[in-house]
Amino acid sequence: TRNLVLVLGDQLSDRLQTFAEFDRKQDKVFMAEVTGESRYVWSSKMRTTLFLVAMRRFAENLRGKGIDVLYRKLDDSKRFDSIGSALVTELEEGNWQKVLVTQPGEYRLIAEIESACEEAGVELVILEDDSFYCNASRFDEYAKGKKQLRMEYFYREMRREHSILMEDGEPAGGKWNFDSSNRKSFGKGGPEALFPRKRFKPGKVLEDVTRSMDTVFADHPGFSEDFDWPTTREEALEALSDFIDNNLAQFGAHQDAMWNGEPFLNHSLISSSLNLKLIDAREAVDAALEAYEKGRAPIESVEGFVRQILGWREYVRGIYWRYMPDYLDRNELGATNTLPKFYWDGSTDMSCMRDVITQTIKHGYAHHIQRLMVTGLYALLRGVDPKEVHGWYLAVYIDAVEWVELPNTLGMSQYADGGVMASKPYVASGKYIDKMSNYCSSCRYDPSLRSGKDACPFTVLYWDFLDRHKKILQSNSRMTMQLRNLDRLDAKELEKVRSQARELKSTK
Ligand code: FAD
Ligand code: SF4
């Protein structure tokens, strides 16, 4: 035997370089379900189910193509707690020349795989993950010599470099960015009729995985019975074309809007398929461009969608590899508080938090603004330790893989990196949530009140946050307006805010 191709749970693609010279006669694929990957954060059943179902179906698919797959199941008689230990055992049992692996999506795993190969005395080859537009060295070239990195400029370079939405050297539609057309709320009437999203039922394999989960992860949050996400390449392609046909045109205007009881709205729901590599970023971008060329979706929708994938998704990956491993320990605002218990079950009378957390536990999904400006904002205002917030986001979302989750959580949402990801903390009072949703109309709190028994917890904590971090924030010119408003509060009112905030911050 020759090469062992290690396939991790978020590398479910035979279009990766590791398969380029695969020799069916001599090479084998190795995949392992290990308990540690679901335990190092308290991974929800929905998320773990996605990985296990997709891994098992990918292995079946490879076998159907005549590829020999060595597969360790979670409930095999010998259970492994880490990729490293599963790999060492496999290597010691066989006679391998080399291990090939695509660059993992998590820093920690590189070290683990390296030391497993070293222990077993087998050469390791880590290959570039070419499912992205931009690799680490291209990102470093972009970042070199810049005092401050900004997604917008990186995105423009990517647009030019890959000739995406460019017309005669100029951005299509006359401007680079239609962000200002992407922030409409739904108004009182709510969203227009929504197409029901496509649901995918994996059948027997889901039953098997649910059984394994019930044995090994019984105490983990959430459920797996209602699981309905795409888990094969065919299903992911179907989900993508469903989005392009039915939702892309409406996606643009209301990207940031929220509506009680409507978790999916016009979002694409493809992040887990992209992150597991069932489909590639290029396929998603190309499908949107085709819809634009055929006049089936307006520029603000298509540019908005392309910006998320070619811009944000590639940018956060660049940040992750450039700043890890130190990035994980950043805590610019010195936050040490803990997450309240209701993050795990939604039992709170804040209507916005209840809705977002309940849908998160039920579906493993919330859209960007729900993550950033509801659950993320509350944790930031409460002063929760960014590492704990990171643990929550990595555990509960089906699309959570560290390279994309960490910069979004620790950087964009918690400002713990001191401005690498975002030029200022994303802080707002309950009034922002009121503007972008209908949550407040069914809430017992009032978003415009900052003190008293009906005061919105977001609003109380917002003023307290500005007050608490005034010193750090003063050096940021983008915070001037907000701080000026703080200065207008009279001393008595500020005292009331502080004392109410103290109470809110100490609830368990
Ligand atoms: P759409 O709204 O339809 O957007 C299209 C695609 O663009 C997404 O599928 C995604 O691949 C990409 N995208 C959009 N925004 C971002 C972004 N900020 N960063 C990277 N890619 C983006 N995304 C993840 O894939 N995994 C995570 O673990 C994750 N954690 C997050 C944590 C926080 C605190 C925040 C604020 C955002 C996080 N995001 C994460 C980004 C974003 O919220 C999700 O990608 C998006 O909600 C997925 O839903 P969708 O596929 O319907 O996306
Ligand atoms: Fe959320 Fe405050 Fe609005 Fe209630 S009043 S839904 S807590 S923003």
From TrEMBL:
It comes from the Bacteria. The keyword Lyase applies. Keywords: Lyase. Pfam families: DPRP. GO terms for molecular function: lyase activity. PANTHER family: SLR1343 PROTEIN. This is Cryptochrome/photolyase family protein. It comes from Pelagicoccus albus.
